[in-house]
Amino acid sequence: MANKKSESKSSAKPGAIAPAKGKLGVMMPGMGAVATTFVAGVEAVRKGISLPIGSLTQMGTIRLGKRTDGRSPKIKKFVPLAGLNDMVFTGWDIFEDDMYAAAKNAGVLETSLLDQIKPFLQSVKPRPAVFDRHYVKKLDGKHVKKGKTKMDLAEQLREDIRDFQKTSKTARQVMIWCGSTEIFLKQSGVHASVKSFEKGLLKNDEQIAPSMIYAYAALMEGVPFANGAPNLTVDLPVMHELSRRNHAPICGKDFKSGQTLMKTVIAPGLKARMLGLDGWFSTNILGNRDGEVLDDPESFKTKEESKLSVLEYILQPDLYPQLYSKFYHKVRINYYPPRADNKESWDNIDIFGWLGYPMQIKLNFLCRDSILAAPIVLDLVLFMDLAKRSQELSGLGVQEWLSLYFKSPMTAPGLYPEHDLFIQTMKLKNTLRHLKGEELITHLGLEYYD
Ligand SMILES: NC(=O)c1ccc[n+]([C@@H]2O[C@H](COP(=O)([O-])OP(=O)(O)OC[C@H]3O[C@@H](n4cnc5c(N)ncnc54)[C@H](O)[C@@H]3O)[C@@H](O)[C@H]2O)c1
User: Fold this and answer.
1) CB of residue 299 inside a 6 A radius of ligand 1
2) b (16+ CB within 10 A) / e for 142-159
3) Beta strand 276-286 with 328-335: parallel, antiparallel or unpaired?
4) What digits encode the pLDDT tens for the residues 279-291?
5) Which CATH superfamily does the domain covering 259-366 fall into?
6) What spacing in Å lies between the alpha carbon of 62 and ligand 1's midpoint?
7) Is 326 within 8 Å of 205 (Cβ atoms)?
8) Element (H, E) at 333
9) Which residue(s) pair with 129 in the sheet?
10) Number of Cβ atoms within 10 Å of the Cβ of 212
């Protein structure tokens, strides 16, 4: 069998990965629906009550070598990931509720499940938050830190991180933003470098939102930071600089959980078969606190930008003007309390085929927002911890290989993001193969016919 034409090709020699020794601390700014569903879920899995469905790190496998080799280990056996039993949790919120009360309030998981792990959930209590209503208009809470300057607040968060490191006896930590969506902000001069950002912190610059203060604190402490909301947060030159300098990986933005997940499955399919698109209308009803926050036009604008970018990048209208240069894309989110976390989305997709004949696709997804988001949080925490321990990845800054999990994947400056779910999956798995010195899989496969 000729090895010249191969389905896989050699990767460069990867650096070492430190073993996942000791406990892993998970720090969550925002202890609402997503965060509590994630933490309660991990505990339920640890206790053998439920299965970690939706989690690639827990259930996924990875093919190695040729299709005929029959080597497909579980991902968690292939790369050294922290075990669920080694995870310890803390967080911050503007409300004082512990994780049991917060999970009951979120109404995602049934009380009968929560009651089986009640003492554990009650033991996870929020630290006072860094919060300012200017950035999330619909919320008001009293459990917040006080400080004269934003730098004071950053120092307090750094102290919280050090305190958690000491008291939890964790060997490593990851911070993941599970807080509310903040108002729409644009990158400006204060975000250009660590120097200008620190000046801005001292001067209480309005362009510095609370999520950025958490990110700054984490990166200063060498802790990786993942961003689950569409806020700019770590998608800024100052954070790229800090991340690389302190070997604290960053990734974001905005968990790709429901409607956008479907969009990034269907759009690549249309493009693969050269079917045209006239319009894509997406609407949602959502009744949880996230829905209430997004009812504010300034927070919605941040979410809208994140949801809209997907189709442009996947369909590449510049390359296919006859198919994709004129499509109309509209995204609406309507706050509708009776549905709570059980979001319902409708998509009407106007497509056209052979000789321009029009057709329609209707999609009605009755999803559960936080049920879809929780396994994303788990995978991100474990993969970000892996990135921190990898000699090769830890100093890179943005972890683009984790694009699979985001609506608006961060990239190196000037690079366009890959939104296609299948490309993203291949990128993630090839990164893992590369890290372990295995051959990359290109799916060429001509050698089977030699
Ligand atoms: N499927 C999903 O649920 C999904 C998908 C993509 C993105 N997201 C994003 O994830 C985030 C969390 O979603 P959720 O459904 O858990 O919302 P949620 O409203 O239930 O929880 C957010 C929590 O963050 C807290 N918070 C707000 N600002 C804070 C601050 N500065 N510091 C500390 N805590 C703060 C709020 O008090 C609230 O408890 C939102 O930004 C949401 O847009 C969720």
Assistant:
1) no
2) eebbebeebbebbbbbbe
3) parallel
4) 999 999 988 887 8
5) Dihydrodipicolinate Reductase; domain 2 (3.30.360.10)
6) 32
7) no
8) strand 328-335
9) 144
10) 29
